[in-house]
Amino acid sequence: MSIIQLNQRQLKIIDIVKANEPITSESIAAHLNVTRATLRSDLAILTMTGILDARPKVGYFYSGVSEINLMSNKIKDKKVEDIMSMPILVKKDMSIYEVIVTMFLADVGSIFIIDDDEFLCGIVSRKDLLKATIGGADINKMPIGMIMTRMPNVVTITKDEDIVLAAKKIIEHEVDSIPVIEYDKHDKTQAKAVGRMSKTNITKLFLELTDN
């Protein structure tokens, strides 16, 4: 059996839970002298793989490490490109109103913004669009480029990276989705969005593995 490689902090978390179960995330953080936010991705990985079990208002329990709850042989072979979905792209000069309509029709939580050369230059979320709308912006005239989060401040991932890394980035940065990019061969500072990795993609993967 192949076992997912855990880091030192994750191993310490397992020991703490074993000795103190049930235990809350606040207590685990206190044992390690770190913040709850610091542990968010570690706890997500440990519960996602089935090593820990989380119960609302109770805390974390140790479930054990087994071939069934890890599903490691299947997970480790999956790359981002295996489960990513198509990106929803709009030009940076499109109006905020047009982007709102596009987001509604596509039923996504975020939209990727590209420049005239079709390189990724930003991203907008539902929250960004809501802020612009209630903030009094002229959404029919103001271009989306005025309110987007600009590169290089956009969290991205490449299609050949691991699913677990994608999940960690989504959790750590508290975003709905991240662009899957492919760097330009001649200019490594530029990249095109070739896919979209979201919480839904990852959830569907685990449902698929569980059903099988």
UniProtKB/TrEMBL annotation:
<feature type="domain" description="CBS">
    <location>
        <begin position="148"/>
        <end position="212"/>
    </location>
</feature>
<dbReference type="InterPro" id="IPR000644">
    <property type="entry name" value="CBS_dom"/>
</dbReference>
<keyword id="KW-0129">CBS domain</keyword>
<dbReference type="InterPro" id="IPR051257">
    <property type="entry name" value="Diverse_CBS-Domain"/>
</dbReference>
<feature type="domain" description="CBS">
    <location>
        <begin position="83"/>
        <end position="139"/>
    </location>
</feature>
<dbReference type="Pfam" id="PF08279">
    <property type="entry name" value="HTH_11"/>
</dbReference>
<protein>
    <submittedName>
        <fullName>CBS domain-containing protein</fullName>
    </submittedName>
</protein>
<dbReference type="InterPro" id="IPR013196">
    <property type="entry name" value="HTH_11"/>
</dbReference>
<dbReference type="InterPro" id="IPR036388">
    <property type="entry name" value="WH-like_DNA-bd_sf"/>
</dbReference>
<dbReference type="InterPro" id="IPR036390">
    <property type="entry name" value="WH_DNA-bd_sf"/>
</dbReference>
<dbReference type="Pfam" id="PF00571">
    <property type="entry name" value="CBS"/>
</dbReference>
<dbReference type="InterPro" id="IPR016842">
    <property type="entry name" value="UCP026546_HTH-CBS"/>
</dbReference>
<dbReference type="InterPro" id="IPR046342">
    <property type="entry name" value="CBS_dom_sf"/>
</dbReference>
